[in-house]
Amino acid sequence: MRFRTHYLLYLVLAVTDAWLLSHPNLIGRVGIWLYRYSYIKNFPRALFFVLLAVVFSILMSELIKKFFPVRTAVLLLALLLVIASMAFMNVFIQFSSGTYQFTGKAFIWGAHLLPFILILIFIQSLYEVFRTGKLDQ
Q: How far apart are CA 57 and CA 119, in angstroms?
C-alpha cells in the first residue's frame, strides 16, 4: 500500500471529527455521562476511536482491492458504501429530532462527519477499482 495524498485528507477530517465529538454542550455532556459514552469523553479518546474506525475502513478497502477479483471487490465495496450511507442516514434522523438535537452544533456535526468520512473512503476505493480494474473478467 503506497502513500496517497487523500490519506492526508482523511487524517485532517478524522482529527476535526474527534475535536467536534469531544466538544458537546452541557446537555450533550450529560448525555455522554448518562449513556456512558466514555469513548468520546475527551479529545484523545475521541481521536483514538475515530482514527481506529478510519484506519480499519481504509485497511478493509485496501485488502478487498488487493485480494478479491474486480467484480467481487466492486460488490463488497458497494455493500460497504451502502452500510456507511445507512449509518449516515441513521445519524441524520437521530440528530434531527428528540433530545439529540440539543447536544450542540459541534457535536451534531461531529456525529455526521464520521459516516461521511467512511463514505468518502469507500467511494475512493470504488473509483480506484473502476479506474484500474478490468470489468470484463
A: 10
Residue type, 122: F
> In terms of pTM, does the model score above 0.90?
no
- Cβ-Cβ contacts under 8 Å for 63 (sequence gap 6 or more): none
Phi-psi region of 36 (alpha: psi -120 to 50; beta: other; left: phi over 0): left
For the chain, the 3-state helix, strand and coil shares in percent, each to the nearest 5, are 80, 0, 20
Cell numbers standing for residue 12: 485532517
Pairwise CA distance, residues 115 & 102, whole Å: 20
pLDDT for 7-48, tens place per residue?
A: 999 999 999 999 998 888 776 666 666 666 776 778 999 999
Please check whether residue 49 is in contact with residue 115, taking contact to mean a CB–CB distance below 8 angstroms. Answer: no
Residue with cell 456507511: 84
Instruction: Decide which of 36 and 71 is more confident.
Output: 71
